Amino acid sequence: MRAAVLVEPGRIEMEERPVPEPAPGDVLIRVASVGVCGSDAHYYREGRIGEFVVESPLVLGHEASGTVVAVGEGVPAERVGQRVSIEPQRPDPGSAPTRRGDYNLCPHMQFYATPPVDGALCDYVTIGAHFAHPVPDTVSDDAAALCEPLSVGIAAVRKARVTAGSSVLVSGAGPVGIVTVQVARAFGAVDIVVTDLDEHRCEVARRFGATATFDPRSDDTSDLRVDAYIDASGSPAAVDSGIRAVRPGGTVVLVGSGAETMPIPVQVIQNRELVLTGVFRYANTWPTALSLLESGRVDLDSMVTAHFPLEKSVDALESDRVPGSIKAVVHVSPTVEAQRGTE
After folding, report:
1. Are the C-beta atoms of 230 and 171 separated by less than 8 Å?
2. Are strands 11-16 and 2-8 parallel, antiparallel or unpaired?
3. Which tens digits make up the pLDDT trace of 139-151?
């Protein structure tokens, strides 16, 4: 099979590799679409993200969809031919976090495109059968792949305790910020304020459901008193001002990956009894993600601003630097059925 392999920072080479064999409990998937995440671009340019360092050739890509073409022992043969969205995680079923339901926190997690685990910028991948989620024909291959960032938004909105009538402040109008806006709206939020330095991104946020947008360089949000603040920027300044915008008893959720440490207004958190938490990936989100997509309450296809073939993976990884870009998708081998989701 073909694989786009990161051999060193700034250099990806196309390689021929053996098609993997599905182990017991696994399915073999012919990859259709792969979304490009900021973490992929960071590994490509820097070769590391915090403590995760690329020390050997690595296949990037963890936002993926495809079609089951073979099954391992113990998996029903009728799964062959299913279009699926891939939840790119292999937790240890025996670990304490997995057993209590927090499998995203498993210390032995094998996660696509996190060194040394290969990702999905290739023709075929394997995953545990329970992590290959069947998708209806009304959902495109692109949207099925983008269930992964959608799941981050779902995890964040759940942590933020957003419900009907909630008010939410979101910092950062990149792809995760945009899906968070859509999920907050779907969960019933009526006031969704977004801050970003880029006016075009603010415009996109309004198109996807934000009720107001602000430039944090000139607009003061400290008097908003929202029910929840969700940071999708990783900016220390945004986190500080976002916390100050939350009402007493409200919730702060940190999603964006930025500075390893940052100052926070501790007395504001104490005096207002704010709940401050983080999000690390997701768990048990795919059923909700697919329901939101099938019902039309979330639109992922409209977030895709560029498509690339597998051989142009470098261009896909660099596309975040193109003005107006929201989300790039690599088409590895898109299915005929995928067109139904975009017609």
Report:
1. yes
2. antiparallel
3. 999 999 999 999 9
